[in-house]
Specification:
about 425 residues, mainly alpha, two-stranded antiparallel ribbon, about 50% helix, disordered N terminus
């Protein structure tokens, strides 16, 4: 029969189709996988060990969570990067503007200070028993070979050998040169007899004995100014014996104690102001420099104020001869640096005490050196210095401005006390 012969012919064809379909189903994932892997870029990895699990991309791959950034990884721009304060490791993630970091909650941020426990701050650091005392100045290192001229000059100064002739002038000149060195300045300051001799010489009015030499008082002042200038160790040595020096020392050239002569030594009348204004002003300028160095010490500064030192300084501002301009500027700088300009280390509030006086009072000879007349004399110098250098104008204007401010502050304090 024709129908019975056709069935066997279709069976092999159907089986082939089923097998082909099954093969397509199982082979499709493999083909898709091969296709994707051939198109996707392979990551550039950094591997420090043979374990592939420890490898990481060369370019950091950010997510929405912080991840550790390795030191040799490259960071794309625009990420939120932080330093984990607990682990010390750098971390990064996708940046979200305005997002707060919860790990910083409760911690001080944007401050360049370290919070210290008040108890620790009050007690201070623990100093080991037997530790050497802290010295803020530091050790002043000496030269490999000390100058023999220093010892020779100091011996001549202290011995009372005739203070005349070329040898003594040369000795003072040598001491002046050495005084500017920190080590030799300290050596001079440590010699009590030498300091006493120099101060007594400064308070005198001896004239030079050789042609071209400065007066001995000016030379002595130049040595002392060199000793104290930028040499806190030297000033510390002198302040240690300062009270005894002022009270007990009797100067052979004057017969009076330093207590009565030192601060007034800057007054023009004690330096031959009528004979040679140029030389008198130079002598005064050197002595003002010594006072400026000494009153950097608080105890000496208070003694200076009690003993009328400011009145002696004010007398330097009275001469109207232009020869006195540099000495007057030196006085102005002393007042600013020690009493009125906090930026220069001045002790504010110690001076002035009293209010400003009227110009009519300050123009009189009897009242012209009163404390309230500083403003008048400085203003007069400022007005008359229109043709002077800007440097001279600057100190007088600064001094006027700060005097006004200081007197205003003192006046407010008095009103507060009255209330």
């Amino acid at each position: 029969m024709p129908g019975s012969r056709s069935k066997p012919n279709h069976l092999p064809m159907m089986l082939a189709m089923v097998v082909g379909l099954i093969l397509c189903i199982f082979s499709a994932p493999s083909i898709a996988h091969d296709s994707n892997s051939s198109n996707a870029p392979k990551p550039d990895l950094i591997c420090h060990t043979s374990n592939p699990d420890e490898c990481y991309p060369r370019v950091f791959q950010p997510t929405e969570e912080f991840q550790i950034v390795h030191d040799d990884q490259e960071l794309p721009n625009g990420l939120h990067v932080r330093l984990n304060i607990w682990t010390g490791q750098k971390e990064a993630k996708i940046n979200v503007p305005g997002e707060a970091d919860p790990s910083l909650e409760g911690l001080p941020v944007d401050q360049a200070v370290v919070m210290v426990d008040p108890e620790e701050q009050r007690d201070g650091p623990k100093i080991p028993k037997g530790a050497p005392e802290y010295e803020p100045v530091g050790k002043v290192m000496g030269p490999e070979h000390e100058s023999a001229a220093l010892a020779e000059g100091l011996n001549m100064l202290k011995s009372g050998i005739s203070k005349s002739g070329q040898a003594f002038d040369d000795a003072l000149e040598t001491l002046e040169d050495l005084s500017h060195d920190m080590y030799y300045g300290l050596k001079i300051a440590q010699d009590t007899e030498a300091i006493e001799a120099l101060l007594c010489l400064m308070c005198g009015q001896s004239a030079p004995t050789t042609d071209g030499a400065d007066p001995h008082d000016q030379q002595a002042a130049s040595i002392l100014a060199g000793v104290f200038q930028n040499n806190p160790a030297a000033l510390k040595e002198v302040t240690a014996f300062w009270p005894q020096l002022l009270v007990e020392s009797r100067c052979p050239n004057t017969g009076k104690s330093l207590h009565l002569r030192l601060y007034s030594s800057v007054e023009p009348s004690r330096n031959g102001d009528g004979a040679n204004a140029q030389q008198a002003a130079a002598r005064v300028k050197s002595k003002v420099a010594v006072i400026n160095g000494l009153i950097k010490d608080g105890s000496i500064r208070k003694h200076f104020l009690r003993e009328g030192g400011m009145e002696s300084l004010l007398k330097v501002l009275i001469p109207e001869d232009k020869a006195w301009a540099r000495a007057q500027r030196k006085v102005g700088q002393l007042v600013l640096d020690n009493f009125l300009d906090e930026n220069m280390g001045a002790a504010l509030g110690e001076w002035p005490y009293l209010p400003k006086l009227g110009d009519e009072i300050c123009q009189t000879e009897d009242s012209g050196t009163a404390e309230g007349c500083w403003d008048y004399h400085v203003a007069r110098i400022m007005k008359s210095s229109s043709e002077a250098s800007e440097e001279e104008e600057d100190w007088s204007r600064q001094l006027i401005d700060r005097l006004v401010a200081a007197r205003k502050e003192k006046n407010n304090e008095r009103k507060h006390e009255e209330l």
